[in-house]
Amino acid sequence: MMMIWLVLLSLFCKSTQEENSQEHGYLNCGPQNVTLLHSGQMILLWEDQPSCSAVRDVLIYELVVFRAGQQVNYDEVAVTPDQIESTHYRIWTSFLDLEGASNSVRLRSRYNNHTSPWKEQTFPGKQTLKVPEIFPKDKWFMVGSTVTFYCILPSTEAFSTMYLNTGEQPSTTKINNQTYALTVYLNRASKNTCDHVKCETKTNNNNGACVYIGYPPHYRDLQCETRDLKSVECQWTVRGDTDLPFKEPKAPQLLGSPCLMLSKGRCSQKVEKVDVGERNWTLTAQNEFGMVELSDTADLSKRVHMFAPNGVKVSTVNARSVTLQWNLAKPQYNNLNITCQVRMSFGEISIIGIGLNSTVLNDLIPNWTYNATLRCGSTQHFWKWSEWSKKVFFRTYGEVPDALDVWMHMEGNHTKIIWKMPQAKQSHGHIEHYEVTWRKTTENHNQNSTKVAFNKQSLSLSLTRTKEYIVTVTARNINGSSPPSTITIPSLNPAGHRVKTSRIIGSNGGFNFSWSASPAASCGYIVDWCPTSGNHTEDWLKLPPNETYAKVFSRNFTDGRRYSLSLYACTQGAPLLLERREGYVTEKSIKEGLFKSMKGKQQDSNFEVSWDLISLAEQTAFIQGYVLYCSDNNNSVISFSTDDPAATSLKARNLKMGFYKFTMKAQTAVGECGATFITAILNSPTDNLIGAVLIPLLTIFGLLSLTIMLCFRHWACIKQKVFPPIPKPMLTSMGEHGCHLLHVDQCHHSEVSVT
């Protein structure tokens, strides 16, 4: 037991001696061989005293910088035990030219609250100046920095003011008779040039220094990936709105090594392995204003951004399919499970495969020109699509035309067979002509046929209206005839065609046509439409049996024109008419002067206005009735109306005698329109009776007077004609049976002979 206590006492004594020895050592620890150098920067070198080897923890060195007698910087340098007994240094840029003022550095160590004595080194500046000088000059400062500028004057100059031309005027501090300091906060960047610090004296105002204020590289949003599975490629966003144009950033570094610039905001660097899992990628970039550091954490095996396929070509061209082939941009892609997307004129398709380099494109349009391009990406851990490849162009082979869309229009004794002109994607080549055949449904052999020019879309047939006919239309191109399109023409059945016509209101440039389902529509419905009057072209729409609504629209629709719409049920035989509608896409106000040959007639105290029947071509809106306005000389207006749109006359009743202006207007949904007027004077019934009696009497009196005057003037002639004188007999000596010529007075040169 005693031995144990002796051993413990021995160890305690030894430990106490070591602690005393260590404490005595680090109390004397401090800097030695302190040296201050200048080469555009301040460089402070020093070594540790030998006693510092006793330090077992971090040793702190304190540095204090004095410029022109004032403290301008304080810094601490941490030295770990493994760095002790090596040469230490500290480098920093002096804002004030070392030759422009005296600079001194004080250095001491600190450990466990024990500090060594200060060691000081001084670098004297110029002692004499000929002109005022400002420091620092031609330096680069980051926006947000606080900088002190010094103006050192010759002994012959007297200080006046000091300022920076950024608009701010902070106060100036006097350090001594020859040195003045201006401390400013730099809150904005220089604009394409430097800013000037001015120091004016009583006799000299041209003293200044140029400084540049800006930002570190404005980079953000770093994102790294691999494109060839052998290198990493990183890209970032570059904001150039605040970067100074006269100072571009230096080449960035990735993971501390130079990164090869590919373009602005993109660089690349080789890597040993891609499939090493997730790691941190750090990019640093700097310019004279400072440094920026960006980081991105990524597993490159999950970020494969392929290059675009090349060598795209087409082989094995058919009417409705082709084979598309290409080469992968990198051999490393051959082992990847790849998804490619092919974009063509009609849309996009996606395909998947390992080392994918070909595919067959189906369901193409015959005789059609296509262009195709594709892009690819890794299927597993899909990251990004590659760029699109170059386009390849090809044309499919031709084929017979598609079946035509055929319809009919019956008018009078003629049946018009109509079809829609095939579009380019339906004709599969140039249409040479159409062929129309027809026969009665009761006959199988007596078939008629005719050809129609390629630029026609209809054929009028004179068919027996009491019989049903089957009409077939085909289109032909260089590859052959299309599948036949057949329609059955119904026989004339007045009872079956008596369908009531109702109105339909247009909306949004067309008609919304809805109806109740019909059990007769075994193969769907047909809606056709055309203008109600005038020359027109029919159009139609075919719908499946489950549809009971159609949006009827045509680029040929015109506002203010009435259209007729018909609904047919598609059956196994002839189409069955179900409904008829009439309406306007948009009703328009009818022009003035609507009522042609308008005339009026007084009937006692009434006045009836009549007009010709208004044609449909003149009705740019539904006429709902008419209104007649009567205004007299006192501008008093009364009106009379009818709601019969088929009326051709309207009577104004119980009017007073006098002058009237009668204005006739049509009533429509867009207001009263089509104004036409006449004027008339209304007389009393007595005046009319007197006039009816006097006028005939005066006429008779005038005729009698004229007759009397004529008779008096020609009375002698009339008397001679009516009552000629009888001559007395006279005997002569010529003999018993002789003839004697009797001369009578002439009347208007006429002669009368008597024997």
Automatic annotation (TrEMBL):
Organism domain of life? Eukaryota
SUPFAM superfamilies in the record, alphabetically?
Fibronectin type III (SSF49265)
Write out the transmembrane intervals: 689-712
The cellular location(s) given in this protein's UniProt record come to: Membrane
Q: Which UniProt keywords apply?
A: Glycoprotein, Membrane, Receptor, Repeat, Signal, Transmembrane, Transmembrane helix
InterPro entries per UniProt? FN3_dom, FN3_sf, Hempt_rcpt_S_F1_CS, Ig-like_fold, LIF-R-like_Ig-like, Type1_Cytokine_Rcpt_Type2
Name the record gives this protein: Fibronectin type-III domain-containing protein
